[in-house]
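Take one record.
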Amino acid sequence: MNQQLFDLTYDATNKCVQCGYCLPVCPTYESMGKESASPRGRINLVKLAAEGKINVLDHLAGPIDLCLGCRACEIACPVGVPYGHILEAAKEVIAETQVEKKNEIWMDKAKRLALSHLFLHPKRLRAIGNFVWLYQKTGLAKIVRKTKILNKISEPMAQFEKMLPPLESPIKRNQWGEIIPAKGEVKTRVAFFAGCVTDAMMYRTNRLTIDLLTLAGCEVLIPEKQNCCGALHAHQGMTDHAKTLAKANIEAFEQSGAEYYVNNAGGCGAILREYDHLLANDEQWQHRAKNFVNKSRDISEILVQYGPLPFKKEWNGVITYQDSCHLRNVQGVYKQPRHLLQSIPGAIFIEMEDSNLCCASGGIYNILHFEESMKILDEKMEKLKATRATTVVTANPGCLLQMRLGVERQGCLEQVEALHLVDVLAEACGLR
Protein backbone atom coordinates (compact mmCIF):
# COMPACT_ATOMS: atom_id res chain seq x y z
CA MET A 1 0.00 0.00 0.00
CA ASN A 2 1.11 3.56 -0.74
CA GLN A 3 -0.04 5.14 2.52
CA GLN A 4 0.34 8.76 1.43
CA LEU A 5 -1.64 8.25 -1.78
CA PHE A 6 -4.20 6.20 0.15
CA ASP A 7 -4.72 8.94 2.74
CA LEU A 8 -4.95 11.71 0.15
CA THR A 9 -7.20 10.08 -2.45
CA TYR A 10 -8.76 6.76 -1.49
CA ASP A 11 -12.11 8.02 -0.17
CA ALA A 12 -12.48 10.29 -3.21
CA THR A 13 -11.60 7.56 -5.72
CA ASN A 14 -14.25 5.28 -4.19
CA LYS A 15 -16.92 7.83 -5.13
CA CYS A 16 -16.36 7.05 -8.82
CA VAL A 17 -18.99 4.57 -10.10
CA GLN A 18 -17.22 4.14 -13.48
CA CYS A 19 -20.37 5.29 -15.33
CA GLY A 20 -18.51 6.89 -18.24
CA TYR A 21 -20.31 10.26 -18.27
CA CYS A 22 -16.85 11.85 -18.19
CA LEU A 23 -15.67 10.22 -21.41
CA PRO A 24 -17.28 12.53 -24.03
CA VAL A 25 -15.94 15.69 -22.34
CA CYS A 26 -12.38 14.46 -21.81
CA PRO A 27 -10.08 15.86 -24.52
CA THR A 28 -7.33 13.28 -24.01
CA TYR A 29 -9.76 10.36 -24.13
CA GLU A 30 -11.30 11.77 -27.30
CA SER A 31 -7.90 12.23 -28.96
CA MET A 32 -6.12 9.09 -27.66
CA GLY A 33 -9.07 6.73 -27.41
CA LYS A 34 -7.79 4.61 -24.53
CA GLU A 35 -9.14 4.05 -21.05
CA SER A 36 -5.96 5.13 -19.28
CA ALA A 37 -6.40 8.55 -20.94
CA SER A 38 -9.87 9.00 -19.43
CA PRO A 39 -10.85 10.41 -16.02
CA ARG A 40 -12.39 7.16 -14.80
CA GLY A 41 -9.37 5.22 -16.03
CA ARG A 42 -6.96 7.52 -14.21
CA ILE A 43 -9.07 7.38 -11.05
CA ASN A 44 -8.94 3.59 -11.16
CA LEU A 45 -5.16 3.68 -11.58
CA VAL A 46 -4.80 6.05 -8.60
CA LYS A 47 -6.93 3.67 -6.53
CA LEU A 48 -4.83 0.66 -7.58
CA ALA A 49 -1.60 2.53 -6.79
CA ALA A 50 -2.96 3.54 -3.38
CA GLU A 51 -3.71 -0.12 -2.68
CA GLY A 52 -0.18 -1.05 -3.73
CA LYS A 53 -1.34 -3.16 -6.66
CA ILE A 54 0.56 -1.14 -9.26
CA ASN A 55 3.76 0.93 -9.15
CA VAL A 56 3.40 4.71 -8.84
CA LEU A 57 6.19 5.55 -11.28
CA ASP A 58 5.90 2.65 -13.72
CA HIS A 59 2.12 2.56 -14.13
CA LEU A 60 0.57 5.77 -12.78
CA ALA A 61 2.96 8.62 -13.62
CA GLY A 62 2.53 8.42 -17.42
CA PRO A 63 -1.30 8.53 -17.56
CA ILE A 64 -1.43 11.25 -14.90
CA ASP A 65 1.14 13.38 -16.74
CA LEU A 66 -0.93 13.18 -19.94
CA CYS A 67 -3.99 14.65 -18.22
CA LEU A 68 -4.69 18.27 -19.13
CA GLY A 69 -6.36 18.97 -15.80
CA CYS A 70 -9.23 20.82 -17.51
CA ARG A 71 -11.70 19.36 -14.99
CA ALA A 72 -14.57 19.17 -17.47
CA CYS A 73 -15.16 15.70 -16.03
CA GLU A 74 -16.18 17.25 -12.70
CA ILE A 75 -19.03 19.15 -14.36
CA ALA A 76 -20.21 16.00 -16.17
CA CYS A 77 -19.91 13.70 -13.14
CA PRO A 78 -23.33 12.78 -11.71
CA VAL A 79 -21.93 11.87 -8.27
CA GLY A 80 -19.50 14.77 -7.78
CA VAL A 81 -16.15 13.01 -7.82
CA PRO A 82 -13.48 15.67 -6.99
CA TYR A 83 -11.23 14.67 -9.87
CA GLY A 84 -9.06 17.80 -9.70
CA HIS A 85 -8.13 17.12 -6.09
CA ILE A 86 -7.38 13.47 -6.86
CA LEU A 87 -5.19 14.55 -9.78
CA GLU A 88 -3.13 17.06 -7.80
CA ALA A 89 -2.69 14.64 -4.88
CA ALA A 90 -1.46 11.99 -7.32
CA LYS A 91 0.97 14.47 -8.87
CA GLU A 92 2.27 15.38 -5.43
CA VAL A 93 2.99 11.73 -4.59
CA ILE A 94 4.53 11.08 -8.01
CA ALA A 95 6.80 14.14 -7.75
CA GLU A 96 7.96 13.20 -4.25
CA THR A 97 8.59 9.60 -5.32
CA GLN A 98 10.64 10.75 -8.32
CA VAL A 99 12.85 12.91 -6.10
CA GLU A 100 13.17 10.20 -3.45
CA LYS A 101 14.16 7.54 -5.97
CA LYS A 102 16.25 9.98 -8.03
CA ASN A 103 14.10 9.12 -11.01
CA GLU A 104 13.70 12.62 -12.46
CA ILE A 105 14.56 13.16 -16.11
CA TRP A 106 16.16 16.44 -17.15
CA MET A 107 12.74 17.92 -18.01
CA ASP A 108 11.47 17.23 -14.49
CA LYS A 109 14.55 18.85 -13.01
CA ALA A 110 14.18 21.87 -15.30
CA LYS A 111 10.53 22.31 -14.26
CA ARG A 112 11.39 22.09 -10.59
CA LEU A 113 14.27 24.53 -11.01
CA ALA A 114 12.11 27.08 -12.85
CA LEU A 115 9.22 26.79 -10.41
CA SER A 116 11.52 27.06 -7.39
CA HIS A 117 13.91 29.79 -8.52
CA LEU A 118 11.93 31.80 -11.07
CA PHE A 119 8.20 31.76 -10.38
CA LEU A 120 8.75 32.41 -6.68
CA HIS A 121 10.43 35.72 -7.53
CA PRO A 122 8.23 38.30 -9.37
CA LYS A 123 11.17 40.65 -9.97
CA ARG A 124 13.05 37.95 -11.87
CA LEU A 125 10.02 37.29 -14.06
CA ARG A 126 9.64 41.00 -14.73
CA ALA A 127 13.30 41.16 -15.73
CA ILE A 128 12.63 38.39 -18.26
CA GLY A 129 9.64 40.35 -19.55
CA ASN A 130 11.80 43.44 -19.95
CA PHE A 131 14.34 41.38 -21.88
CA VAL A 132 11.62 40.04 -24.18
CA TRP A 133 10.47 43.61 -24.89
CA LEU A 134 14.07 44.53 -25.77
CA TYR A 135 14.40 41.32 -27.79
CA GLN A 136 11.36 42.29 -29.87
CA LYS A 137 12.20 46.01 -30.06
CA THR A 138 15.77 45.59 -31.31
CA GLY A 139 14.85 43.13 -34.04
CA LEU A 140 16.70 40.25 -32.41
CA ALA A 141 13.46 38.24 -32.56
CA LYS A 142 13.50 38.41 -36.35
CA ILE A 143 17.08 37.14 -36.46
CA VAL A 144 16.28 34.23 -34.11
CA ARG A 145 13.27 33.23 -36.21
CA LYS A 146 15.16 33.54 -39.48
CA THR A 147 18.10 31.43 -38.25
CA LYS A 148 15.76 28.98 -36.42
CA ILE A 149 18.15 28.82 -33.46
CA LEU A 150 15.31 28.28 -31.00
CA ASN A 151 13.87 25.46 -33.11
CA LYS A 152 17.07 23.49 -32.56
CA ILE A 153 16.69 23.87 -28.80
CA SER A 154 12.94 23.24 -28.52
CA GLU A 155 10.38 23.18 -31.32
CA PRO A 156 7.44 23.89 -28.96
CA MET A 157 9.28 26.87 -27.44
CA ALA A 158 10.02 28.19 -30.93
CA GLN A 159 6.36 27.92 -31.90
CA PHE A 160 5.13 29.79 -28.83
CA GLU A 161 7.84 32.44 -29.06
CA LYS A 162 6.34 33.43 -32.42
CA MET A 163 2.91 33.78 -30.82
CA LEU A 164 3.93 36.21 -28.09
CA PRO A 165 2.05 39.48 -28.61
CA PRO A 166 4.21 42.61 -29.09
CA LEU A 167 5.14 43.88 -25.64
CA GLU A 168 4.76 47.56 -24.84
CA SER A 169 7.44 49.52 -23.02
CA PRO A 170 8.03 48.27 -19.44
CA ILE A 171 7.66 51.85 -18.19
CA LYS A 172 3.91 51.48 -18.80
CA ARG A 173 3.69 48.52 -16.42
CA ASN A 174 1.66 49.37 -13.32
CA GLN A 175 3.71 49.38 -10.13
CA TRP A 176 2.79 47.12 -7.25
CA GLY A 177 1.65 49.13 -4.23
CA GLU A 178 -0.04 51.67 -6.51
CA ILE A 179 -3.61 52.91 -5.93
CA ILE A 180 -5.56 53.92 -9.05
CA PRO A 181 -8.67 56.06 -8.40
CA ALA A 182 -12.06 55.28 -9.90
CA LYS A 183 -13.31 57.41 -12.77
CA GLY A 184 -16.43 59.15 -11.54
CA GLU A 185 -18.51 57.70 -8.71
CA VAL A 186 -16.61 55.28 -6.45
CA LYS A 187 -18.72 52.13 -6.24
CA THR A 188 -16.25 49.79 -4.54
CA ARG A 189 -12.59 49.15 -3.77
CA VAL A 190 -10.85 46.14 -5.34
CA ALA A 191 -7.39 44.65 -5.06
CA PHE A 192 -5.91 43.47 -8.34
CA PHE A 193 -4.01 40.19 -8.69
CA ALA A 194 -1.39 40.82 -11.38
CA GLY A 195 -0.22 37.23 -11.88
CA CYS A 196 3.31 36.22 -12.78
CA VAL A 197 3.34 35.43 -16.52
CA THR A 198 0.79 38.15 -17.28
CA ASP A 199 2.70 40.70 -15.21
CA ALA A 200 5.93 39.74 -16.96
CA MET A 201 4.79 39.29 -20.56
CA MET A 202 1.25 40.66 -21.00
CA TYR A 203 1.25 43.69 -18.75
CA ARG A 204 -0.66 45.73 -21.33
CA THR A 205 -3.64 43.47 -20.62
CA ASN A 206 -3.13 44.11 -16.90
CA ARG A 207 -2.99 47.85 -17.47
CA LEU A 208 -6.19 47.74 -19.53
CA THR A 209 -7.85 45.56 -16.87
CA ILE A 210 -7.22 48.28 -14.31
CA ASP A 211 -8.49 50.96 -16.72
CA LEU A 212 -11.73 48.99 -17.24
CA LEU A 213 -12.18 48.54 -13.50
CA THR A 214 -11.80 52.28 -12.90
CA LEU A 215 -14.29 52.99 -15.71
CA ALA A 216 -16.75 50.73 -13.89
CA GLY A 217 -16.32 52.78 -10.71
CA CYS A 218 -13.72 50.70 -8.89
CA GLU A 219 -10.84 52.13 -6.91
CA VAL A 220 -7.99 49.70 -7.61
CA LEU A 221 -5.14 48.78 -5.32
CA ILE A 222 -2.27 46.53 -6.48
CA PRO A 223 -0.99 44.75 -3.33
CA GLU A 224 2.77 45.21 -3.22
CA LYS A 225 3.65 41.89 -1.57
CA GLN A 226 1.54 39.62 -3.77
CA ASN A 227 3.19 36.65 -5.42
CA CYS A 228 2.62 33.88 -7.97
CA CYS A 229 -0.77 32.18 -7.40
CA GLY A 230 0.84 28.74 -7.03
CA ALA A 231 -1.23 27.03 -9.75
CA LEU A 232 1.76 25.75 -11.72
CA HIS A 233 3.34 24.43 -8.52
CA ALA A 234 0.17 22.61 -7.51
CA HIS A 235 -0.25 21.16 -11.00
CA GLN A 236 3.31 19.82 -10.92
CA GLY A 237 2.99 18.21 -7.50
CA MET A 238 4.90 20.92 -5.59
CA THR A 239 2.15 21.36 -3.03
CA ASP A 240 4.32 22.82 -0.26
CA HIS A 241 5.41 25.64 -2.56
CA ALA A 242 1.78 26.27 -3.55
CA LYS A 243 0.78 26.53 0.11
CA THR A 244 3.59 28.98 0.85
CA LEU A 245 2.51 31.19 -2.05
CA ALA A 246 -1.14 30.99 -0.99
CA LYS A 247 -0.32 32.21 2.52
CA ALA A 248 1.76 35.10 1.16
CA ASN A 249 -1.09 36.18 -1.14
CA ILE A 250 -3.75 35.89 1.55
CA GLU A 251 -1.70 38.12 3.84
CA ALA A 252 -0.96 40.65 1.10
CA PHE A 253 -4.59 40.97 0.00
CA GLU A 254 -5.98 41.08 3.55
CA GLN A 255 -3.96 44.25 4.09
CA SER A 256 -5.61 45.93 1.09
CA GLY A 257 -8.96 46.43 2.82
CA ALA A 258 -10.63 45.71 -0.53
CA GLU A 259 -14.14 44.36 -0.97
CA TYR A 260 -13.08 42.09 -3.84
CA TYR A 261 -9.84 40.53 -5.09
CA VAL A 262 -9.88 40.64 -8.90
CA ASN A 263 -7.87 38.67 -11.46
CA ASN A 264 -7.96 38.37 -15.26
CA ALA A 265 -6.53 34.85 -15.74
CA GLY A 266 -8.80 31.82 -15.54
CA GLY A 267 -6.01 29.49 -14.41
CA CYS A 268 -4.83 31.80 -11.64
CA GLY A 269 -8.36 32.54 -10.53
CA ALA A 270 -9.14 28.84 -10.17
CA ILE A 271 -6.49 28.16 -7.57
CA LEU A 272 -7.19 31.47 -5.83
CA ARG A 273 -10.72 30.16 -5.35
CA GLU A 274 -9.39 26.89 -4.00
CA TYR A 275 -7.01 28.26 -1.37
CA ASP A 276 -9.47 26.98 1.24
CA HIS A 277 -9.00 23.44 -0.08
CA LEU A 278 -5.24 23.87 -0.36
CA LEU A 279 -5.01 24.99 3.29
CA ALA A 280 -7.86 22.86 4.63
CA ASN A 281 -5.61 21.02 7.09
CA ASP A 282 -3.95 24.15 8.45
CA GLU A 283 -5.98 25.40 11.42
CA GLN A 284 -4.19 28.76 11.49
CA TRP A 285 -5.08 29.55 7.88
CA GLN A 286 -8.44 27.81 7.26
CA HIS A 287 -10.64 30.78 8.12
CA ARG A 288 -8.42 33.33 6.40
CA ALA A 289 -8.30 31.18 3.26
CA LYS A 290 -12.09 30.90 3.20
CA ASN A 291 -12.46 34.67 3.47
CA PHE A 292 -9.97 35.10 0.62
CA VAL A 293 -11.92 32.69 -1.57
CA ASN A 294 -15.21 34.48 -0.85
CA LYS A 295 -13.72 37.77 -2.08
CA SER A 296 -12.02 36.42 -5.23
CA ARG A 297 -13.60 37.39 -8.54
CA ASP A 298 -12.83 37.22 -12.24
CA ILE A 299 -12.70 40.58 -14.02
CA SER A 300 -15.81 39.66 -16.06
CA GLU A 301 -17.87 39.19 -12.88
CA ILE A 302 -16.96 42.64 -11.58
CA LEU A 303 -17.59 44.38 -14.91
CA VAL A 304 -21.05 42.81 -15.17
CA GLN A 305 -21.85 43.61 -11.52
CA TYR A 306 -20.81 47.26 -11.73
CA GLY A 307 -21.43 47.90 -15.44
CA PRO A 308 -22.48 48.65 -18.04
CA LEU A 309 -19.22 49.79 -19.60
CA PRO A 310 -19.16 53.12 -21.47
CA PHE A 311 -18.52 51.76 -24.98
CA LYS A 312 -17.39 54.35 -27.52
CA LYS A 313 -16.66 52.33 -30.66
CA GLU A 314 -18.56 49.83 -32.76
CA TRP A 315 -16.99 46.45 -33.37
CA ASN A 316 -16.57 45.30 -36.95
CA GLY A 317 -16.90 41.57 -37.57
CA VAL A 318 -17.88 38.29 -35.93
CA ILE A 319 -16.67 37.43 -32.42
CA THR A 320 -16.57 33.97 -30.88
CA TYR A 321 -15.45 32.85 -27.45
CA GLN A 322 -13.32 29.95 -26.22
CA ASP A 323 -13.84 29.17 -22.54
CA SER A 324 -10.90 28.99 -20.19
CA CYS A 325 -11.41 25.54 -18.63
CA HIS A 326 -10.52 26.68 -15.14
CA LEU A 327 -12.69 29.77 -15.41
CA ARG A 328 -15.70 27.71 -16.48
CA ASN A 329 -15.21 24.36 -14.75
CA VAL A 330 -13.68 25.48 -11.45
CA GLN A 331 -14.97 29.03 -10.99
CA GLY A 332 -18.30 28.50 -12.71
CA VAL A 333 -17.91 31.68 -14.78
CA TYR A 334 -19.15 31.39 -18.36
CA LYS A 335 -22.19 33.65 -18.77
CA GLN A 336 -20.45 36.91 -17.86
CA PRO A 337 -17.77 36.94 -20.63
CA ARG A 338 -20.45 36.16 -23.22
CA HIS A 339 -22.74 38.87 -21.85
CA LEU A 340 -19.94 41.43 -22.10
CA LEU A 341 -19.04 40.46 -25.67
CA GLN A 342 -22.69 40.49 -26.77
CA SER A 343 -23.11 43.98 -25.29
CA ILE A 344 -20.42 45.54 -27.52
CA PRO A 345 -22.05 47.80 -30.14
CA GLY A 346 -21.91 46.31 -33.63
CA ALA A 347 -20.46 42.98 -32.51
CA ILE A 348 -21.92 39.82 -34.02
CA PHE A 349 -21.43 37.04 -31.47
CA ILE A 350 -21.45 33.46 -32.72
CA GLU A 351 -21.15 30.59 -30.25
CA MET A 352 -18.47 28.08 -31.26
CA GLU A 353 -19.35 24.39 -31.10
CA ASP A 354 -17.67 22.77 -28.08
CA SER A 355 -16.36 26.11 -26.87
CA ASN A 356 -16.59 24.63 -23.39
CA LEU A 357 -14.05 21.91 -24.21
CA CYS A 358 -10.31 22.36 -23.64
CA CYS A 359 -7.99 23.95 -26.22
CA ALA A 360 -5.12 21.83 -24.78
CA SER A 361 -3.01 24.65 -23.42
CA GLY A 362 -3.06 23.22 -19.90
CA GLY A 363 -0.50 25.52 -18.24
CA ILE A 364 2.73 24.11 -19.70
CA TYR A 365 1.11 20.95 -21.10
CA ASN A 366 1.44 22.26 -24.65
CA ILE A 367 5.21 22.50 -24.18
CA LEU A 368 5.67 19.20 -22.36
CA HIS A 369 3.30 17.27 -24.66
CA PHE A 370 3.38 19.30 -27.84
CA GLU A 371 2.10 16.69 -30.33
CA GLU A 372 -0.79 15.58 -28.13
CA SER A 373 -1.71 19.22 -27.52
CA MET A 374 -1.61 20.14 -31.21
CA LYS A 375 -3.88 17.24 -32.16
CA ILE A 376 -6.58 18.59 -29.83
CA LEU A 377 -5.92 22.19 -30.89
CA ASP A 378 -6.23 21.45 -34.61
CA GLU A 379 -9.64 19.90 -34.00
CA LYS A 380 -10.62 23.02 -32.08
CA MET A 381 -9.57 25.17 -35.04
CA GLU A 382 -12.01 23.33 -37.31
CA LYS A 383 -14.80 24.39 -34.96
CA LEU A 384 -13.46 27.95 -35.01
CA LYS A 385 -13.45 28.06 -38.81
CA ALA A 386 -17.11 27.05 -38.88
CA THR A 387 -18.09 30.24 -37.00
CA ARG A 388 -16.45 32.47 -39.66
CA ALA A 389 -15.26 34.63 -36.78
CA THR A 390 -12.67 37.34 -37.34
CA THR A 391 -11.93 37.51 -33.60
CA VAL A 392 -11.63 34.63 -31.15
CA VAL A 393 -11.64 35.69 -27.51
CA THR A 394 -10.49 33.91 -24.38
CA ALA A 395 -9.85 34.86 -20.76
CA ASN A 396 -6.56 33.22 -19.84
CA PRO A 397 -3.02 34.02 -21.07
CA GLY A 398 -2.12 30.39 -21.78
CA CYS A 399 -5.32 29.83 -23.74
CA LEU A 400 -4.65 33.04 -25.66
CA LEU A 401 -1.21 31.91 -26.83
CA GLN A 402 -2.63 28.49 -27.70
CA MET A 403 -5.42 30.00 -29.81
CA ARG A 404 -2.94 32.30 -31.56
CA LEU A 405 -0.83 29.27 -32.40
CA GLY A 406 -3.90 27.39 -33.64
CA VAL A 407 -4.83 30.26 -35.96
CA GLU A 408 -1.24 30.37 -37.24
CA ARG A 409 -1.24 26.61 -37.89
CA GLN A 410 -4.36 27.10 -40.00
CA GLY A 411 -2.67 29.87 -41.97
CA CYS A 412 -5.35 32.37 -40.93
CA LEU A 413 -3.37 34.99 -39.00
CA GLU A 414 -4.37 37.72 -41.44
CA GLN A 415 -8.08 36.84 -41.24
CA VAL A 416 -8.54 35.87 -37.57
CA GLU A 417 -7.22 37.64 -34.47
CA ALA A 418 -6.99 36.00 -31.05
CA LEU A 419 -7.48 38.45 -28.17
CA HIS A 420 -7.99 38.48 -24.43
CA LEU A 421 -11.47 39.50 -23.31
CA VAL A 422 -9.98 42.57 -21.62
CA ASP A 423 -8.27 43.74 -24.83
CA VAL A 424 -11.54 43.53 -26.77
CA LEU A 425 -13.55 45.41 -24.15
CA ALA A 426 -10.84 48.05 -23.80
CA GLU A 427 -10.74 48.68 -27.54
CA ALA A 428 -14.53 49.04 -27.64
CA CYS A 429 -14.26 51.56 -24.78
CA GLY A 430 -11.63 53.57 -26.67
CA LEU A 431 -8.84 52.67 -24.26
CA ARG A 432 -5.26 52.30 -25.47
Notes: The mean pLDDT is 93.
